[in-house]
C-alpha cells in the first residue's frame, strides 16, 4: 500500500450514513407539512373574512353582538318576561315588602290595604282580605285573580301578584299615588280642573270598553263607581276592584247572577227585578251614573232638610235637557265657559248610558267616541221610567222609528250617534255663515 507524504488519509467509510440521511429528510418533510398547514389555515381564514365582508354589510361600531350579551342580562330578561303574569308571593315576602304592614292606605268590609315596596323600589299596594266562615272572600279572591290577572291595559290597575295559604289571602297591586276619584270629585277644594275630569272619564270608558269588547272572554265588572277608579301620579285613571267581576263568553246574551252585586245608587234597574237577564250593559248604566257625578262634581243623591225631599241629580239633568237648558245647568255647576260644550256632551252621554233598557244603552266603544267628540250624539229618550213603574215592561227597548237602524253601531250612523265627516262639517259651517 502506497501513501503520499504530506496528505492525510481519508476517513474510513461508515455504515450509519444512510440512516442519518433518512432522519434528516423526514424532519424536513414534517417542517414543510407544518408550514403548509399553517399557511392553508391562514388562507382559509382570510377567504372567510373576505366572503363575510362581501355578503354582509358592515356592522355599526355601537351594536352589541349576540354573543357579547352576558348571562345576567338574559336572566334579567327572562325574569321580566315571567313577571308580566301575576306572581305567587309568600306571607314572609309580603311582610317584608310592607315593613310589617306599617302603613295603612284604607280599609273596608273586604279587609285592609297596606302600602309597600318591592326590593327594586317599585311601590305597591297590598290588599289583605278578611277571612270568614263563608266563601265570599274566596270568591272575591278568585274573581280578582281570574279577571284582572289576565288583562293588561293602560286604564286597568295592574295586579303584580297574590298570596294564598292557610292563614292569608292577599293581592298585590301597583300603587296609585292619588288614590280614588271620589276623594277628588267630592272634596270641597276641587283641585282637579274640569278638563282633567273629562280626560279621566274618557280613560275610564276605554278601560271598561277593553273589558267588554277586547278581552278573549268578556269581563263584567259589576261595581263601576268613583271609588273604584284610581288615579296615578299623573291623574290618569285605572279601573280597579274586580272582586265582583265575572268572566263570560262573548256569545252569551246574558249571565246568571246570584245574590246582590254592586253599590246602591250605581246599580242598573234590571238588578231590582227577579229573574231578569243581566248583561254587560249593567256596567254601562253604572258608568252613566258616574258621568252625572263628574258633570255635577257632587254625589247624585242629596237628602234635604225635610226627609221627604230627595235631590237626585240625574233626574235634574234630564229635566234641564228636556227644556233645552243643559248649557245653563253646566254653568250652574261651576264649569267654565271653555269647558261647557264638553260638559253638555258628557251629560247627553250619561243620559244614553242610564237608559232603562239594557239594549238601548250604547256599548262602551261607542261611549268613548261620543265623549271624545268624534260623532254627533243623537237625542236620547227619556230615562228613569223604572222609578215610577213596576215590572219588566219599563226595561223593554223602545221601538226605533225613522231610519230603522235599530241598535247597531256599524257604518257612519247608529242608534246613539252619527259620525260627522269633514265634508259635512264644512257644509254646516257654510250654511251657518250665510
Automatic annotation (TrEMBL):
Q: Which Gene3D superfamilies match?
A: Phosphorylase Kinase, domain 1, Transferase(Phosphotransferase) domain 1
Q: Give the UniProt entry's GO cellular component terms.
A: membrane
Annotated ATP binding lies at 127
Localisation per UniProt entry: Membrane
Keywords from the UniProt entry: ATP-binding, Glycoprotein, Kinase, Membrane, Nucleotide-binding, Serine/threonine-protein kinase, Signal, Transferase, Transmembrane, Transmembrane helix
Domain of life of the organism in this record?
Eukaryota
Q: For the Protein kinase domain, which residue ranges apply?
A: 99-388
Under the heading InterPro entries, the entry gives: Kinase-like_dom_sf, LRK10/LRL21-25-like, Prot_kinase_dom, Protein_kinase_ATP_BS, Ser-Thr/Tyr_kinase_cat_dom, Ser/Thr_kinase_AS
Family statement: Belongs to the protein kinase superfamily.
GO molecular-function term, one example from the UniProt record:
ATP binding
Any Pfam family matching the protein: PK_Tyr_Ser-Thr
- Which residue windows are transmembrane per the record? 20-40
Q: Does the keyword Transmembrane apply?
A: yes
- Protein name as catalogued: Rust resistance kinase Lr10-like
Q: Does the keyword Ribosomal protein apply?
A: no
Protein topology in the membrane: Single-pass type I membrane protein
PROSITE patterns attached to this UniProt entry = PROTEIN_KINASE_ATP (PS00107), PROTEIN_KINASE_DOM (PS50011), PROTEIN_KINASE_ST (PS00108)
